[in-house]
Amino acid sequence: MRQFALSIALIFTAGWSAAFEIENRARFGALDSGQVLRIISTADIRFFEPMIASFLAEYPDTEIDYIVASSTEMMRAIYDEEHAFDLAISSAMDLQTKLANDGKAQRYVSDATQSLPDWAIWNDMLFAFSQEPAAIVVSKEAFGDLPIPKDRHELINLLRQHPDRFRDRVGTYDVRQSGLGYLFATQDTRASDTYWRLTEVFGALEARLYCCSSDMIDAVKTGELLIAYNVLGSYAVNREDRSDFEIILPSDFTTVMLRTAMIPHNAPSQELSAIFVDHLLQRSHGQDAQPLTQSGLDLIQMETSLNRIRIGPGLLVFLDQLKKRAFLSEWESAILQN
Amino acid sequence: MSAPVAHGSIRRRLLLSLLAGAAVLAIVVYFVVQSVARQVAQESQDNVLAASALSILDSARYSGQEINVDLPYSALSMLDSISDERVFYAIRLENEFLSGYDELPEADGTVAGVPAFRSATFLEEEVRVASVRRRMSTDIGQSYLQVSVAQTLSGQKQTLARISQTSMGIGAGFFLVSVLLAAIIARSTIRPLDRLTVSVSRRGPKDLRPVAAPVPSEMVPLVASLNSFMRRLKRSLTRSEDFIAEAAHRVRTPLAIVRTKAEIVQRKADNPETRTALREMIHAIDDSSRTAGQLLDHAMVTFRLDHLSQDEISLLRLVQEAVERLRPISEMKEIELHAIGTEDSIIQGDPILLQNALHNLLDNAIKYSPAGARVTVALTRHNDGGEIRITDTGHGFPEAELDRLTDRFARGANAESIVGSGLGLTIVKEVVEAHGGKMYFENMPGGGACVSLHFPLP
Lengths: 338, 458
What we know:
With 338 residues, chain A is an alpha/beta fold. Chain A has 14 helices and twelve strands. Chain B folds into three domains: 14-161, Beta-Lactamase (2-Layer Sandwich), CATH 3.30.450; 203-307; 310-456, Heat Shock Protein 90 (2-Layer Sandwich), CATH 3.30.565.10.
């Protein structure tokens, strides 16, 4: 029986690999228990592992199959190819909203979901469990005597004053590839026009484009980059070598992404999903929460400049194909000047 | 007299019909409030949807050979501002799908610029759709650009649930207030009837005066016929009493003459059979004339009871006078008659009636006691009144008939050989009760009858 289950699992796995692209995959817990919770996530294994460990400590008889995919691959897996997962965790709030809005999520109500603050829950389908700001990460060593910018204006001025130093050494998301990068960029344009000026400057400096926050931080670490813009602050803070970096939360406005979980409508082990969601939310909210992103970043202190992205159909606007086409063409013309 | 048959209750009927009316009204209120609220909720949702659709429509530009729609952020985010809603939209140029949700149904509007609405099901959920269209000039000529925006109904359902609760509350409150009012109305409507009942039932047994207190106009016919009925009853009673008294009076005189003649004939007659026959005749005549006398007494008592006087009466003197008056008769029958007790009680009432009553009782005692017996009249005084107790050493009352001794014309089983009408104790009882007193009969443990009269002190 167990072998049969395993072979079924292998067939499924084979099916996935053929369709959407998996970045990474790990199994945790009791591997032969028969109770499998399949999580598809955009978060690195290293980042999410503490949550899985604390869950398995409480429910040791469970296996967790953790699959990492980019937000667009995840969208394809769930939306287009209709693969069955028990939980979908993503930082791409717009795509999560699209999934929920289009009926790919099921409603779930429990004590844990009802005690969430309003901004952390949408339609009983999406549950936010972390607040992660988009930060500017700067290499302390490579910056040397240059002043550390506190907001976007200072950053623009700095880049304009030292074009030779920063040429080819500024990094940001390739918003065509990265769902999160697109989300940050679109929210930036909603908050202020500065974003377009900054992008023009980036373009003039032949900025490098990246798919992911961790790659950008690594590039800053190696000295390849001096500045990375719109990096997930949480990834930088959680690193052991974080003292090498200056993590700047821009004081004009700091876009805050909410990492959300949802239970797909076709989840095979819904009860397990529910237990995990409750565990995830209880650990992330409230008095004695132990959230995944340890707060080296004091979000509460800068509440006024926080631009927490609101979960809701507004996020669908930039997914509109006409809108997206227009945005991307404007972005390309700004950043790809050669 | 049999108790009247109760069929229904005016108060209950009034209460029930008021409550039924109130319940119907409460339900009507509930539905009216709810339907008005539903309409308002629907309209406000439609307004938001129309605003959203119009703002999308306004953002459309024709440039560079194609339609550009710069979807405003607020167009979709405004639909989610009150409650979490799933939102769908579709942008079409004539029948060509441009952006949004291809499958979204649209509401058919006739006039450009005026939003049209419909309810539909999309992606397995109920939605409300607003569609609006506008004429665009393109290279290929005039085309219609149509925008549809749809929203799920969770917020509207919440609102409706809340309103439904509120209207339920309003209905229930309305009903409660009505219950209270209905109870008050029913009571105040019935009150004159209750008052009439009390004023009639509180009357004494002989009180046949017409009802004079004012009554509501609906009750005037009832009270008028009641009064007329009582008037007729009173007249009829008076007439029959008059008739009896008149009859008794007229019979008594001829009887006296017949008796005198019979005695004379008896004295003269030599034939023993004739004498026996005549003695029996005289006995029968005595019986008749005594009855006639008591009927007269009774008529007199009835008249005086109707107009009871309130003189001060000393029970001691009453007893002494009665004893003295009857002493000759008792001595004739060799019956020892005496009064004991010196403690006087003063009561209020009609001295003639009381004398008559006491006389009747003593007369009875003497009449029914054999020669050599003793009749005692004892006067005592208690905390709550005076008591006259008449005991004899005769045969006592027949046990089986103690309760019905005071019925009119009832006579004890042992009284057949004695002249009497059976009216005496009836008269006594009426007199005593008219003075607020009570009469008790009992037999003495050692033989002999005992009658006691209790009179309350004024």
